[in-house]
Amino acid sequence: MMKRSLYLIIVFLTICILGTIGAAFIYMLYMNCSILVAGKQLVFFEPSFFLNGLRLMLPVMSVAACLFMIFYLIRHKTNALMSLILFSVISITVWLVLIPASFSFKGLSGKVQIDKERPELTAGFFRPVNKGIYYYSVISDDNLGDGLYIDAENLYGLENGVQNVQGMPVSLISSNGFTDPLIYSSVKFKNSVPLVFEYASSLLDVADKANRCGYTTWLGFASIALSLISLYGLKSCTKWRLINVMIVMGAFVGICYVNILIYKLPFFFKLRLFFSSAAVTSMSSFVNYGGFTGWSGFVPLLVNLLIVVLFTLIGVINLARHNDPNREGVE
Amino acid sequence: MKLALKIARVAGLYIVCVCVIAVVLGYVFGSVPETLETGLTGYRFSNGWKFFFSVFPAIQLGSMALSCAFVFGRECKTNLPRFSATMLNNLGAVLLLGGALTCVSFVCHEVGVPLVSRYQQHKVERSEKFKEYFNLAQKYSDSQQYPLALFYVDHAILQNPKSEAATSLRSKIEFHTSEYTIYSETPDRNAVNAGATDLTSSLTDGYTITQLMEKAQSGYNSGDYFDAHYYATLAVMIAPSTDGNVQAAKLLASDAWNKLSTASGEFSYSDEEDLFNRKREGYTALINGNWLHAYYVFHDLENKHFKDPDVVRYGTIAKEKLDSEYFFIDETLDLRAFENAVNILFVLPHPEGHDVVSIRGITSVENSGGLVQYLRGLSIYSYNEDGTFRMSVSVPYAKMFAQETVDFDSFRFTELGDLANVKSVPYIILESIDRDFESIINKPEYVYADGELEEYSNKYILPMSYDDIPLIIDASLGADSMPLFSLVKFIYIAHKYGYSAEVFGQSLVTRICFPLLMMILSLVAGIIGWNYRLAKKQVFKFVWIIVIPILTCVSYILFEIIDSFQVLLDFALVGGLHFATLPVAIILYVLILICTSIVFLAQRGE
Q1: Which residues from B are below 8 Å from A189, CB to CB?
Q2: Helix-helix angle A192-212:B547-577, to 10 degrees
Q3: Nearest C-alpha of chain B: how many angstroms from A36?
Q4: A150 and B550 in contact by Cβ < 8 A?
Q5: Backbone phi, then psi, for B178, in 5-degree steps?
Q6: Closest to B376 (Cα-Cα) out of A161, A28, A314, A331
């Protein structure tokens, strides 16, 4: 059991390293597609995008690896104390060392100048944009296109739904960060995926801002780590491990969501303003710093401590009930 | 097999539960178009089924994970080494069930969702058409144009037979008019004409010069100078100049014409003379190639002299000739509700540059002459080689059918470009006419770059294979929605018609590899099920049923993330490997499937 606890380190490293490389690769493909135009050759490997992907994905995958460590603990019989200590140390290292380090890594890959590399659109393709379709028969050197606009849903009452367009700036039809809307329509993420990414990126945004406001503020934000460590308490809520996995997953999403809300809800804004009043001189400077100044970090710490208390309590109750399916020696 | 059945039983229960939840959710929260007034319940149910079909892959994965966790826990030994016989048995069961559910997923994805979408689209279109026809009926009824009102109210009732408002409007219109019978006779007249067209074909085709001469002479001898002139003229037209009959045919045609020209004084009644003069007017127009005028003259005569053989014969010949140049406006009156595709767009390269064709809606109709397509809102924009605008032609409705290229001369081939291997091309008639009134005609609108009308034509030949038209129609649905068989053929010609081969190629690879991906994910679900299985002696608690919706939501999000990544990967593969992508992708997915199977077998029981 002791040995198995040590496997936690391997589980973490494997998921973190492989996951970061895999996610960075996907990020690179996505970015390559975002600057691709129909009719041109796709660049498969672009080092600058890959490095940027590594930097962006390391925090995400390291947190995901922490979550997977709990799944590992749900699955395997381990030494409880040893596992808790290892899990806590790794989680704290992630939040206090790895993530701040990956944010400061910006210098290397931040040089990527995507706009300069964006190629011009090609003529001769039908491109869906919102509820219409553009077709350029020719695109001039100064990026003005001649061709047609097809009103696919008859929004403008055009005769036969077609309008001749002359000298239109082609950059107007680029969408969602993609140079070519045709490529975007093909590789865009499905229904729930943009929501998940938006959710993850808003948490990353908050983390980035907190990191830029100094280590003290960062510590306030990183108190989320305490909540995530306390997920350990939920790993044996029921006697069916599959349900325990679901509970931990749900709680993980909940913790992230609450921590985003701390920086979004007006109530928390006022609370943070109250705590930061000792450190900042005016409301405007508080807002200019994005609400991350001074003692405002005390608010997330407070909220996360509440979560820790709650989950620890659940963990203690579970322990008292001998609820752990691994411990009961069914196998 | 036994184990597979046990897992299938639990998975089946899970699927039924989620099906009920999904249909109820779709029913309650699914959006219903504002324009839809009837059949709301059916539409709401279809929302539920569409939701169920679209999330079925996630349901499959969730059900596999849960059922494996339940059954493996109950049925399998606990202390197992890696690569044990039990795990081999488990793998077989997971592959069997995974394969079966993957088939269902594939059918839901490729058939279920498109079928329900089409049903919903049809419902909305019917509702919109009903409103349009009903409003027109009301408008004409208010302005006391009862035959027209009756026409539209009947069509409105066809779209929605249960509408009480339409039925009562019809009764009101019926009360006001008894003339509607004139309108209801119209289809019969069409049927007569359709029958006569076949007769005409046999009159004009297949005769030798000698036979034509015999028919001409026989007509002349019996005093039927129209026939005599007609057959003699035909003989002159088809005979080579060296043929000995040419001179005789010319003489006979000339004599017959003289007889026709001087025949006016031979009639005892003015009616007979009027009829003869009108027949001659129509016949002259026919011989001079003015099919339009000939048609209206004989059409007018048909109403009064429908038993006159000359009127019937030359009326039908004029109609047949007319069919290659014009079509009737009333053919397109109620076609919109039956359109099989909308927003069809394609590019056509030709020696002088390229054309862009836009069709708002297309309706395919099978008739005695084969398949014809009615094109609503047709616009053709022509560009020079440097991409500058040359001309455009647009028309509210056009009629298209296949024209065989064997009839083309070398000039036409040069004009249209490389059509060496093309059997037939789309031939489009741009002008539509009224069945009864010569003055009503819909003409195409030509716009030239310099503002002047350089060339006018009432027909247009598209320089492409007619066989590609159905593929382009399917492609208008989008790469992810078009039928898979059409997609396989279309990727080779997509670039030619203004579509990105990469976009369609990616869709093809993703759709063909979808079953392999589902098999891989089913195995992963099996691994999860094994690792987080229920304890052997643990009693199942009813409260645990709450895991079903949560597990389905988690599966749904994870599946969509993996599916989106798969699309990206496939796109990158297509970008690098082009047409070789499909076999490479299949090999790649099979390798991953094998690796996942090995990982499954390597699971231990502690």
Answers
A1: 560, 564
A2: 90
A3: 10
A4: no
A5: -115, 0
A6: A161
What pLDDT shows up at residue A331? 38
In this prediction, residue B264 carries a pLDDT of: 57
The whole-number pLDDT of residue B191 equals 35
> What is the per-residue DSSP string for A10-69?
HHHHHHHHHHHHHHHHHHHHHHHHHT--TTSPPPS--HHHHHHHHHHHHHHHHHHHHHHH
User: Is-contact B367 B401, C-beta < 8 A?
Assistant: no
Distance from CA of B385 to the nearest CA of A (A): 10
State chain B's mean pLDDT as an integer: 83
Give the pLDDT of residue B221.
78
Chain-chain contact of B571 with A241 (C-beta, under 8 angstroms):
no
* Among A137, A243, A331, beta carbon nearest to B544: A243
Q: How far is CA B413 from CA B194, B356, B383, B418, B422, in A?
A: 33, 20, 20, 7, 11
Nearest by Cα to B527 from A242, A26, A100 = A242
Residue B408, token pair as written in the block: 């083309």
Q: Number of CB pairs < 8 Å for A and B?
A: 171
From first to last of its 331 residues, chain A has per-residue pLDDT tens of 677 778 899 999 999 999 999 999 999 999 999 888 888 888 888 898 899 899 889 999 999 999 999 999 998 888 888 899 999 999 999 998 998 888 877 644 444 455 445 677 889 999 988 778 999 999 988 888 899 999 887 777 777 788 888 888 887 777 778 888 899 988 988 888 989 888 888 888 888 877 877 777 788 888 899 999 999 999 888 888 999 999 999 999 999 999 888 877 666 666 666 666 555 444 554 444 455 555 566 778 888 999 999 999 999 998 888 666 665 444 3
Distance set, CA B192 to CA A269, B196, B198 (Å): 82, 6, 11
Residue B463 token pair? 């320089």
Interface test mutation site (partner A, options B67, B356, B482, B563, max chain A beta carbons within 10 A): B356
Assess whether pLDDT exceeds 90 at residue B189.
no
| Chain A positions in Cβ-Cβ contact with residue B568 (cut-off 8 Å) | 26, 29-30, 33, 187
Residue in this structure with the two tokens 């895999």, named with its chain if needed: A22
By C-alpha distance, the chain A residue nearest B606 is A331
A29: nearest CB among B537, B547, B569: B569
CB B103 within 8 A of CB B111: no
Contact A148 B356 (CB under 8 A): yes
pLDDT of B206 reads 61
pLDDT tens digits along B275-322: 777 777 887 888 777 888 888 888 888 777 766 777 787 888 888 888
Q: Which of B358, B499, B538 sits opposite A239 (nearest CB)?
A: B538
B535 contacts on A by Cβ (under 8 Å): 239-240, 325, 328, 330-331
B520 band by pLDDT with thresholds 50, 70 and 90: very high
How remote is the C-alpha of B126 from its chain's centroid?
17
Question: In the Cβ-directed half-sphere of B188, how many Cα atoms lie within 13 Å?
Answer: 6
What is the identity of the amino acid at A143? N
Distance from CA of residue B73 to its chain's centroid? 53
Q: Which of B191, B190, B216 is nearest to B203 (CA)?
A: B216
Cα(B305)–Cα(B290) distance, rounded to whole angstroms?
Answer: 22
Question: Of B204, B228, B449, B461, which is closest to residue B317 (Cα–Cα)?
Answer: B204
Alpha carbon separation from B568 to A220, A283, B510 (Å, rounded) = 37, 46, 10
Average pLDDT over residues B347-353: 87
User: Which residues of chain B lie closer than 8 angstroms to A190, CB-CB?
Assistant: 560, 563-564
Inter-residue contact A149 to A132 (CB < 8 Å): yes
The confidence score (pLDDT) of residue A116 equals 45
- B384's enclosing H/E stretch is strand B370-384
CB contact under 8 A, A41 and B528: no
